[in-house]
Amino acid sequence: MPSEVEPAVMSGPVRRRGPRAEPTVPAERIALVDLLDRVLAGGVVVAGEVTLSIADVDMVTVSLRALVTSVSALAESGAELPGVHR
Amino acid sequence: MEPHGIWIYAITGRVSAAGLGQLRGVGGGPVRAIAAGELTAVVGDVGLAEFGEQALRRNLEDLAWLEATARAHHQVIGALAELGPLVPIRLATVYSSDGGVAAMLADRDADFRAVLSRIRGRQEWGVKAYAAGRPGPQDAPVGAAAPASREAGAGAAYLQRRRGQLTAQKDARRRMLADAETIHAALCEQAADARLHPPQAPQLTGTKALMVLNAAYLVDDERGAEFGARVEALADRHPGVRLELTGPWPPYSFAASEESEGVGERALRIEARDAV
After folding, report:
1. H/E/C letters for each residue in B67-98?
2. Which regions in chain A score pLDDT beneath 50?
C-alpha cells in the first residue's frame, strides 16, 4: 500500500500513551482514511457562501470515490495492494 | 488580484495574532482571525480558481489534491487545538467575505459556545475493531473435502455442508459484533461522549479484515492514559477482534452542537451494512 496511507495506529497490543505526551498525531503519519472520516464527516457544517451547494454533496461519498478510484488505478498499474479484491 | 474566498478552519475563543504565528493553511497561505463577540473564526484566503465551488467539486475527486488539502486543514486545526478548545469546521467551507464569516459567527454564537464548553479540556480518541484471525469456514472452499461423487446424495451433502459453513460464518460474525458492542459500551463509560462512524471499506484500510467498530470517544485530557489502558485491557479480553487506537485528535467528531446532531450513541448499524 502507498506510504501516504500508512496508518498511524497502535495495533495489536495497544501501546499506552499519556494524553499530552504527543498532543496531536503528527500530520504526516495519520492514515488518510482516518483523517477523511474526521475532516469530511466530522467538523461542524456551516453554510458557506461560496460553497453553499457543496454542503449538499455527500462529501464522504466524494472522498471515497476519489480514494477507490485511485486505489483501483494503482492496482491496475500492478502495485501490490493488500485488501483489494480484483 | 485574483478573486479569493475565505476558507474557515475552526471557531475558537479569542486568539492573539501571535498565537497564529507562522501557521500555513491550505494553498500554503497564512491564517488569520476574524472576531465577533467572544468568538474567533480562524480563516485563510484562498483563490477561487482552485477553491471556488466548481473547482472544489472537481478537485475533491482528485485524491492527491484531497489528501494535501485535508492534511493542510488538519495541520492548522491541530496547531490551534494546542492553544485552547476549538470547534473544527468541515473541510471545504468557503465564504466570500469577512463580513459573511462575522455574520455567521454572530448567528451561531450560542451553538458554538455550547460546543466549546462541552469539549473544553477534552480530546477525541478513535477506536477501530477488526475481525481478528482467519475466518475459518471461509478458508475451505465449498466442496473441497468432497470426493467426486456420482451419487444422487452428493448434491444434498453439498448443500448441507454449505449451510453449515454459512451458519458458522454467521455465528462468528455475531460473536464479533457482540464483542464490538461490549467494547463500545465499556469505552463509553470512560468517555464524556461517543460517536460511531461507518466502518471503513477494506479497499481503504488496506486490510481484508472486516471492520466491526469505527468509533470516536471524547475523553477528559487527564483520563487519556486511563482510556488507552482500557483499550489495551479490552483488546486482551476480546481476542476475536483486533483493536486499533488513534489519537488524540482535535474534537472533529464532536463539533456539531447537540441540537443539530443529536448527542449520544447512535445504534450500532454495522450488521445492517455488513449483511449486504
Report:
1. HHHHHHHHHHHHHHHCCCCEEEECCCCEECCH
2. 1-25, 77-86
- With vertex at residue B233, the alpha carbon angle to CA B230 and CA B237, rounded to the nearest 5 degrees, is 135
Q: Give the model confidence (pLDDT) of B27-37 as tens digits.
A: 999 999 999 99
Q: What is the pLDDT of residue B238?
A: 94
Chain B residues inside the 8 Å CB shell of A33: 200, 204-205
Q: Which residues in chain B land under pLDDT 70?
A: 1, 133-152, 257-276
Q: Is B89 on the interface with A (CB under 8 A)?
A: yes
Concatenating the DSSP letter of every residue in A4-72 gives GG----B-SSPPP--TTTSSS--GGGS-HHHHHHHHTTSSB----STTGGGGGS-HHHHHHHHHHHHHH
B252 contacts on A by Cβ (under 8 Å): 38-39, 42-43
Which cell numbers hold the place of B142? 465449498
Joined grid coordinates for residue B9: 478552519
- pLDDT at residue A69, rounded to an integer: 63
Question: What is the reported pLDDT for B126?
Answer: 97
Ordered by start, the domain boundaries in chain A are: 3-76
Residue B171, classed as helix, strand or coil, is: helix
In B23-97 the beta strands, taken as DSSP E runs, fall at 31-36, 39-47, 86-88, 94-95
Supply the pTM of this predicted model.
Answer: 0.77
Question: H or E stretch including B248?
Answer: strand B241-249
Q: Which CATH number fits domain B122-136+164-275: 3.40.30, 2.50.20, 3.30.70, 1.20.1740?
A: 3.30.70
* Contacts by B133-136, CB closer than 8 A, 24 or more apart: B133/B239, B133/B240, B135/B169, B135/B172, B135/B210, B136/B168, B136/B172
- CA-CA-CA-CA torsion sign (B133, B135, B141, B146): positive
CB pair distance less than 8 Å for B228 and A27: no
Residue ranges of domains in chain B:
4-119, 122-136+164-275
Distance from the Cα of B122 to chain A's closest Cα (Å) equals 10
Distance CA B79, CA B151 (A): 71
Q: How far apart are CA B147 and CA A30, in angstroms?
A: 50
